[in-house]
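Ticket #4471: structure output looks truncated?

Reporter: J.K.
Steps to reproduce: submitted the chain below (179 residues) through the standard prediction queue, then opened the result file.
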Amino acid sequence: MPEGQQELETVAHPLEVTIRYGTIEKKIVGQPEQVARDVLSFLTDLIPKFELASRLTLSTDIGSLADACAGILAITPEGIVVTAQVDALADRELLLLHLAKARIAQMLGKSEKDLVQSADLMAATKKSAGTVAGRLSELCGENLAERRGKGEYRITTLGLHVFSEQVLPKLKTTGQGES
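Returned output as attached by the reporter:
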């Protein structure tokens, strides 16, 4: 046999392949031909289902959300503050804004928690306890917010989506999103 060439030997050890696609992981072990068939079968079945699930998944991209909030929210040494005029917002929109502000602060590492006390919402919105409680109850009923503890609330992923789609455009189109 010429130097530098080796005779191919039969593989005595099984082939091991690990596939990671999104949050799914599959390990396939066996003879090379069977592993190849199993990998192809797995991918053929998985990718269409994963792509369909991805289209149905609601998530929030913090970068896009932060860009959309430019001129409405600002980061200060004390935390995230509302810089836009919000007088034209309905009570529920105003609560969504303050709940979203807390969630954005947490997502950006500016706060440890994304929870807001109902008393803090009353102070921030200058609304009565009855108004805040009523609107929070409505938001929770619509799965836009959730109660996490006694008097503590947080915005849900759906709530962030509604905030992005309905409240932010209202602030921007009325000219209130300008500092």
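Triage note (M.O.): checked the attachment and the full token line is present. The chain has two domains: 15-56, 62-173.
Status: closed, working as intended.
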